[in-house]
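Notebook, bench 3.
Goal today: get a predicted structure for VIP36-like protein isoform X2 from Vicugna pacos so we can plan the truncation constructs. The sequence was checked against the plasmid map this morning, with no discrepancies at the termini. Length recorded as 210 residues. Pasting the sequence as submitted so the record is complete.
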Amino acid sequence: MQPGPVFGNMDKFVGLGVFVDTYPNEEKQQERVFPYISAMVNNGSLSYDHERDGRPTELGGCTAIVRNLHYDTFLVIRYVKRHLTIMMDIDGKHEWRDCIEVPGVRLPRGYYFGTSSITGDLSDNHDVISLKLFELTVERTPEEEKLHRDVFLPSVDNMKLPEMTAPLPPLSGLALFLIVFFSLVFSVFAIVIGIILYNKWQEQSRKRFY
């Protein structure tokens, strides 16, 4: 996680971003009421457009009136079998309301959870009381498990993202040692061959003079 302009996090991030935006930046904003929840999947190639409140790269969103409430509000992000669902409880009734539902979301394994924020022209005070994580038990066929393992960059079906090269896995200590060792052996071998050829060239040069 690196600090940046996208709600306190870096731009062109890699992963899933869920944003709670409290202030409209787009001047002719009529069809949306803020605060507004939106989601974005990025493979490191997209910039979040603040001037348009992220509309060009948004997967979906909904209004969430979370200011000046006297009770806790809740947000659920659920990801099961490439299906992303975001729900909220902001009325104090302990009832979930649908916000975003997107099928075909592909997220790699080994990512991290994080929260960030940034203060713009409008200052608010929002407290994150807790962040609870649950691992869901999901039965997959061998084909589904292989497809799940083979995801290296975030993507969304039927949504064209600029292509990025998947990051290569880091080299193990043994692999790194072998690369360095054979590089040194090759360098020494090349130097020895160079010295032999140079000596032969000198001998032939002396013979021509005699």
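The chain has two domains: 12-154, 169-209. Helices lie at 142-149, 173-209.
Flagging this for group meeting.
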